[in-house]
Specification:
The chain is mostly helical. Helix content is 58%, strand content 2%. It is built from 13 helices and two strands. It has helices at 2-16, 78-92, 96-109, 114-126, 130-143, 150-161, 164-177, 185-197, 201-214, 219-231, 235-248, 253-265, 269-282; strands at residues 297-299, 305-307. Helix 8 packs parallel to helix 10 (219-231). It is elongated and about 75 Å long.
Length: 309
Amino acid sequence: MRTAKVVLIAIFILSTLTGCSRELQPGGDEPWQPFPFDSIPQFSAQEQGQISAGQTEPVQQVEVAQAETPESEDEESPIIAGLLNNGRQAIQDGDFDLAVDYFMQVLDEDENNTAALYNLGYIYRRAGDPDRAVEYASRAVESAPNRLYVHQNLGLAYEDQGDIDSAVTEFEQELINHPDEPDLAGIAEKLALIYLDRGLHQEAFDAANLAVNLNPDEPGYHATLAMVHMMNGAYDRAITVLEQAIVLKPDEGQYRKLFGDALWEAGRQEDAGMAYQAAIALDPGLADEIDTDRLPAEESEDGIEDPAL
C-alpha cells in the first residue's frame, strides 16, 4: 500500500512541479535562456552525494547585452553581430519566422556559427518541429561542445522526439560541463525524475540533490528531493526537506499535503493530520486526494466524534 501511494506522489511531482527550462512563451513573462552566455562557471569540488563532474574549460568574461543575450567571446564581423542581435530580438518579440530569417543569413556568412545554430534549434523545438530542432542543435554541439546550454538544447529536442536515452546523455553532459551553473538546476531535476522512473534511485538522489544545491531557493526542487527520499523509504529525511520547501513557499497546499504523506509514513499520524488540515485550508480541492482515515476526527454537535469528510 505504501509503495502504491508513493508512486502516486511521484506521478504528481512529474506533472506539477517546476519546469526544467526557462523558455520564451510568446506573450508570456518568463525569460528565455540566452546564448551565448557571458561565462562558463569554473569547476568546484562536488559535495558527497552529487553527480560527479570533470573540469570545464573557462570562457573569457564578456559584457552582457541589454536584451539578456550576451555576445559570443568569439570575434564576429559587424554584419554577423548585427544579424545575431536582430534574431535574438525577434525571438524575444515572439516573431520566430523573422528570427529564422536572420539566423539563416548568419549561416550564409558562417555555416558553423554556434549562436545561430543554437537559436535555430531552439526555435524549431518551440515550433513543434523536433527533427529540425535536433538537426540544428546537433550542429551547435559539434561547433562548440563546451558552450553553456548547447547540450541542454539538444537534449530537449531529443526529448521532444521521444528519444529519452539520447536526451539523458545530453543532459548529463551539460551538467558535467557546467556543474556549478544555477540555471541548470531544472535539468538536474528532470534527470532525477527520469532516473526515478527507471528505478535508478541512487542516481535520482544525486540529481535531485544537485538541483537543490544549484538553486536552494526553489521550493519545487526540495519537494522533488523529498519525493526521492520517500521512494527510498527515508521518510525522516523527506520531512526535513519538505520543511524547507514549506518555509520557502508556505502558501502551497501541495507541499503541505506531501509533508503530511511523509509524516504519516513515518508513523507520526497526529502531525500528519495537522499537515493535511493545513493543506486543505490552502487548497480545498486537496481534500479529494487525502484518505479520510488520515484526517483528524471532528466532534459532532452531540459530542460524538465523526471522521472528517
